[in-house]
From TrEMBL:
This is Putative sugar epimerase YhfK. SUPFAM superfamilies: NAD(P)-binding Rossmann-fold domains. PANTHER family: FLAVIN REDUCTASE-RELATED (PTHR15020), UPF0659 PROTEIN YMR090W (PTHR15020:SF50). InterPro entries: NAD(P)-bd_dom, NAD(P)-bd_dom_sf. It comes from the Bacteria. Keywords: Lyase. Its EC number is 4.-.-.-. The gene is yhfK.
């Protein structure tokens, strides 16, 4: 059975994914800086590993078939941490994944990462870092799927999404719980490599929109 590495497992999206994987007994390695942040999670197939993403963390890829990168520097940090985590750590993870010959690399990016100049934003350094990380993954040769959610909320999961960008920025938000569900859906598929999905609140089931190109 394949084993999944979750990078950023103590973040809100990452922890939701890790909890679901543990509860469904899927072989999982959760990578965190501090194990205590996942002290309330248990699972027979859950392996929690400590590592600093600013250092060398290639050992985390041993025996790994699939990777979910959902680490982020956070809104309270400056451009230095954005550069080191959202870009440089992502680049290292992609390189390690290539060495390990993983079968699937899911990168949680952001709306606006396709063109950081196109959206008015006070987090442009973050979007530039995401843009460069996305581009590096696309060109790496690693089998990938990239998700670019709209502004994240802590609202209750609706279980419905759209991948068509709304006209109004106010309609672009999406609960973190639904981003986690979208990532889990992608993880369960073998035919979504090479796809990039924007994610927003919507009215569609995951099966109806997160599909291969026709």
């Amino acid at each position: 059975m394949s084993k999944t590495l979750i990078i950023g497992a103590s973040g809100q999206i990452g922890k939701t994914i890790t909890q679901t994987m543990a509860q469904t007994n899927q072989p999982t390695r959760a990578l965190v800086r501090d194990k205590s942040k996942l002290s309330n999670l248990e699972g027979k197939q859950l392996d929690i590993m400590e590592a600093d993403l600013e250092g060398d963390f290639r050992d985390a890829f041993e025996g790994i078939d699939r990777v979910i990168f959902t680490a982020g520097s956070g809104a309270q940090t400056g451009p230095d941490k954005t550069l080191l985590i959202d870009l440089w750590a992502a680049k290292k993870a992609i390189d390690y994944a290539k060495e390990a010959q993983v079968k699937q690399f899911i990168l949680v990016s952001s709306i606006g990462a396709d063109d950081p100049d196109a959206l008015e934003s006070n987090i442009k350094p973050y979007l530039v870092a995401k843009h460069m990380a996305d581009d590096y993954l696309i060109k790496s040769g690693v089998p990938y799927t990239i998700v670019r959610p709209g502004p994240l909320t802590n609202d209750k999961s609706l279980g419905k999404i759209t991948i068509k960008r709304p006209d109004s920025r106010s309609e672009m938000a999406i609960p973190r719980a639904d981003v986690a569900k979208a990532v889990m859906h992608i993880l369960s598929k073998d035919n979504l490599n090479g796809k990039i999905f924007e994610l927003f609140n919507g009215t569609y089931d995951f099966d109806n929109v997160l599909v291969p190109s026709a």
